Amino acid sequence: MISQHAASDLIGQSYEPLFPYFTELENEGAFCIYADDYVTTESGTGVVHQAPAFGEDDYRVMKNNGVTALVCPIDFEGRFT
User: Fold this and answer.
1) Would the CA dihedral through 37, 33, 43, 22 be positive or negative?
2) ∠ CA 65-71-74 to the nearest 5 degrees?
3) What is the C-alpha end-to-end distance of the chain, expressed in Å?
4) Is this prediction's pTM over 0.85?
5) Model confidence over 7-44: pLDDT tens digits?
6) Which residues are within 8 A (CB) of 21 and not within 5 positions of it... i.e. 6 or more apart?
7) If DSSP states are collapsed to H, E and C, what string results for 35-46?
8) Which H helix or E strand runs over 64?
9) Among 13, 23, 31, 58, which residue's beta carbon has the most beta carbons within 10 A?
10) Cβ atoms 47, 11 nearer than 8 A
11) Using CB atoms within 10 A of its CB, is residue 62 exposed (0-12), middle (13-18) or buried (19+)?
């Protein structure tokens, strides 16, 4: 049986990343669940990945939650590093 929880129960919880990239940033707030009003179940799943180097909302959410690491894994030629 799957336990039912409110989405708000997840806020502040950490998770294990799927890939080992940037795991050294966990102590700086990476891999943690945050909430914001622009994320809804009406326009999608209600779950979004944050990429603060690539989006205004992403940057704002992370900054408001004290995450200071700004990771950009793409070089000037558009390749993942």
Assistant:
1) positive
2) 150
3) 42
4) no
5) 788 889 999 988 888 899 888 888 999 988 888 778 77
6) 73
7) CCCCCCCCCCCC
8) helix 56-64
9) 58
10) no
11) buried
